[in-house]
Each structure stands twice: as C-alpha cells, then as structure tokens.
Inverse folding.
C-alpha cells in the first residue's frame, strides 16, 4: 500500500511539472500575441489598414492652392480647354512662363497655327484666349500711376 502510494507520487511530480510548464507557455504565448497586436504588428495578415493607397489617376488631377499640380496652371474657367489644346506639343511651362494680352496670346496662337501645325481651336479659342489673358496677362506696372484730380491747397 505504502509502496504503491509512493509510486503514484513519483509519477505525479514530473507530470504536474509538465502541466504547469505547459500552462505557463500558453499564458506566455497569449501575452506575446496580445502585445504584438497592441503594437499594431500583424502576425499572419501582412496588410496594414493604416496605409493609404494613392490613386495615381486621381492624384494627377490634384489641385493645391488653386494650382493644378500636374501642369501648374491656375485653376479658372477654361483651364481644361487649355490643358487639352496647349500641352500636347510642349510643356505647360512654356505657356505659364509667358504673360501676354489677349492680342498677344491670339498672335502666338496664329504663329503656332502657321508654323507649328497647331490646329484650328474652333469655339474653344475664345475660352482659351480669355483664360490666358486673365491668368497670364501682362504684369501690372510696378510703379503706381501719377496722382490725378488732386485738390492742392497752399500750406500756411
Ligand atoms: C501642334 C503643336 C502645338 C500646340 C498644340 C501648341 N503649341 Fe505652343 N508651340 C509649339 C511649338 C513647336 C513652339 C515652339 C517651341 C520652342 O520654341 O521650343 C511653341 C511655342 C509656344 C510658346 C512660346 C512662344 C514664344 O514666343 O517663345 C507659347 C507661349 C505657346 N507655344 C503657347 C501655346 C498655347 C497657349 C497653346 C494652346 C492654344 C499651344 N501653345 C499649343 C507647338 C504647339
């Protein structure tokens, strides 16, 4: 009797150790998984919800501070017609770096039509010239104009 009891205990001791060791391992793994998750590290799924994928198609038409980012054009009526007709052969910069009156822009268009194969702009020409003269018109003179209609009075 005494012998078999002792045998049982001899058997139990390492068995208990095994079980408690196993439980400890499970808890440890649970803790590690929990903190990994907290840190935002995906264990099996590598996709990350925080990443914003930029739609390139949309991004090229981005407008920042009234400027169409891809071309550099000022956003205003007629911009789309200008993009469609004036950026095919040369960069938009060649347009935006110039400043001309309506007559000047029309003359430039005529010159390109005569010598550079620019097509007939049709009814878009008015819209385009208006856009260009309004947004890329001659720069105003730096000096203010002379005073007019002043009622001078003698100093006493
Ligand atoms: C069919 C091709 C073509 C199209 C479309 C075109 N251009 Fe041009 N443009 C040219 C060429 C070629 C030049 C000369 C480029 C150079 O000198 O390097 C030029 C030059 C210019 C210049 C510079 C002129 C100068 O005196 O230096 C301006 C400004 C200009 N284009 C504006 C426009 C505008 C505004 C439109 C839209 C209405 C337009 N272009 C559409 C071909 C084109």
């Amino acid at each position: 009797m005494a012998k078999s009891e002792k045998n049982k205990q001899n058997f139990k001791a390492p068995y208990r150790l095994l079980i408690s060791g196993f439980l400890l391992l499970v808890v440890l793994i649970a803790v590690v998984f929990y903190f990994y998750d907290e840190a935002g590290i995906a264990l099996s799924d590598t996709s990350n919800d925080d990443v914003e994928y930029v739609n390139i198609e949309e991004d090229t038409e981005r407008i920042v501070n009234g400027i169409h980012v891809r071309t550099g054009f000022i956003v205003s009526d007629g911009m789309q017609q200008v993009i469609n007709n004036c950026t095919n052969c040369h960069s938009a910069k060649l347009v935006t770096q110039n400043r001309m009156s309506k007559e000047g822009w029309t003359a430039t268009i005529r010159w390109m039509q005569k010598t550079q194969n620019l097509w007939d702009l049709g009814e878009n020409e008015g819209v385009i010239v208006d856009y260009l003269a309004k947004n890329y018109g001659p720069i105003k003179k730096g000096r203010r104009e002379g005073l007019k209609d002043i009622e001078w009075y003698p100093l006493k």
User: Anything to note?
Assistant: The beta strands are 63-64, 67-68.
